[in-house]
Each structure stands twice: as structure tokens, then as C-alpha cells.
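User: I've been trying to design a sequence by hand for this structure and keep getting stuck. Would you show me what you'd pick, starting by listing the structure so we're on the same page?

Assistant: Good idea, let's start from the same input. This is the structure you sent:
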């Protein structure tokens, strides 16, 4: 695995370099956002780790520029910002995961491996999902609801929607959703799931009637009969 880390804290970079060496991971380290962007353009990376606050170009701008090019390379944001609004911004810009400082290196490595495994998995043979209201092409990532195109879903919001479409009426806890959609045993904040559900409800017309909160348990997706 080859990982680009854009992080301006030498202590964090040294720690990650040590863990990468133990795990057999090749790490390229940059301390400036502009240098990181140039490295990304010339390299062929399996995963990116971007600090939020960087000289030259901040991590969120770097993440957005990469997604605007249509690149789905997994991106993990590494930051001291831990509010729900900060997470919303990170996911909206296209991040696949969000790790707050201080963090456990072992937990971060677990997330790196899980995100990379998900990225390497082949999609099922069928690229199309059709339900009462939705038509989704998983290859092109096009979404239609009642014949109208749904725009601006982030990669992880798309993955969560597809998971729900494949499991209608089933109730999932936050931990189960993190494991199934994010692909790792949960080490962090369960608000990650809540943030994504809120975004789907907001972006998809009638989302409040589709993504249901099951109090004390988690969430389920159900399309009511017409």
C-alpha cells in the first residue's frame, strides 16, 4: 500500500512513519498543502491522509480539488476539529473518514486498512438498483428519485444510500452501519452516522419520510406505499 500523508506536525508524521514501517506501508510525507497536491498529481496512491490546517493549501481545499477531478481515491481527514459542523464540512467535501487528534495510531491503522479494503473490493455484477422511488447506477454513480436526478452526494453518502436501498425495512445500529458502510469496527464518534443521515434527509426530496430513526436502536430505510 502506498499512502500520501500531508501533515505539517513533525511529531505526527514521525509517529505515522514508524507505524507504516511496521505495517509494510510505503508512506510519502509532505508538510505543505501545495506540495501535497503536486505529489498527488504525480504519484499513484492507494490512500490519502490530509491534515485540515496546512500551509499553502488547507486540507479541505485539497480534498475538494481532488474530488472535482472525479478521483475516488480514499481520503482520511486528520484534524483537531471535532465538532459536528466540522465533520459535516469534511464529508461534504468528499472525505471518506474523519479522525480527530489526539488519536490512537492502532485505531488509525485499522481504519486505513478497512478503507483500503473497501476501495479494492469489486462491485457486484449488477450495476443497477431499482426500487419504488429510486434508480441508481453504481458504476456511473447516477441517482434518480421519481425520475429526477439527485445531485451533490458525497462518496460516503452515496455508499450509505446504496446500503439502505439494498436492505429496506431493516433496522441497523450506528455501530453496524459504521462496520458495513465505512468498513471498520468503530473506534470513534457515532455522530459520523448521524451527520450522514441528516445530509441524506436534506439532499433527497422527502428524505424525512425515507430514513427513519428507530429510537434506542438506530436507523432504517423504508419507502412507504403510494
Amino acid at each position: 500500500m502506498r499512502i500520501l500523508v500531508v501533515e505539517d506536525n513533525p511529531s505526527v508524521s514521525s509517529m505515522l512513519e514508524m507505524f507504516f514501517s511496521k505495517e509494510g506501508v510505503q508512506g510519502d510525507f509532505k508538510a505543505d498543502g501545495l506540495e501535497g497536491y503536486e505529489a498527488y498529481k504525480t504519484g499513484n496512491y492507494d490512500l490519502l491522509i490530509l491534515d485540515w490546517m496546512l500551509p499553502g493549501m488547507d486540507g479541505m481545499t485539497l480534498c475538494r480539488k481532488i474530488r472535482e477531478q472525479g478521483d475516488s481515491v480514499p481520503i482520511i481527514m486528520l484534524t483537531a476539529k471535532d465538532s459536528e459542523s466540522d465533520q459535516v464540512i469534511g464529508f461534504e467535501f468528499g472525505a471518506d473518514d474523519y479522525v480527530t487528534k489526539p488519536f490512537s495510531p492502532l485505531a488509525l491503522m485499522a481504519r486505513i486498512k478497512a478503507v483500503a479494503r473497501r476501495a479494492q473490493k469489486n462491485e457486484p455484477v449488477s450495476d443497477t438498483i431499482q426500487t419504488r422511488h429510486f434508480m441508481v447506477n453504481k458504476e456511473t454513480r447516477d441517482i434518480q428519485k421519481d425520475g429526477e436526478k439527485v445531485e451533490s452526494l458525497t462518496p460516503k453518502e452515496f455508499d450509505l444510500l446504496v446500503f439502505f436501498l439494498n436492505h429496506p425495512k431493516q433496522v441497523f445500529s450506528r455501530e453496524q452501519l459504521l462496520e458495513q458502510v465505512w468498513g471498520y469496527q468503530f473506534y470513534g464518534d457515532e455522530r459520523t452516522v448521524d451527520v450522514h443521515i441528516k445530509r441524506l434527509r436534506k439532499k433527497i426530496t422527502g428524505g424525512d419520510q425515507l430514513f427513519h430513526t428507530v429510537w434506542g436502536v438506530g436507523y432504517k430505510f423504508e419507502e412507504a406505499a403510494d
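That's my pick for every position. To get oriented when you compare it with your attempt: Residues 200 and 207 are 7 Å apart (CA to CA). The two ends are 49 Å apart (CA to CA).
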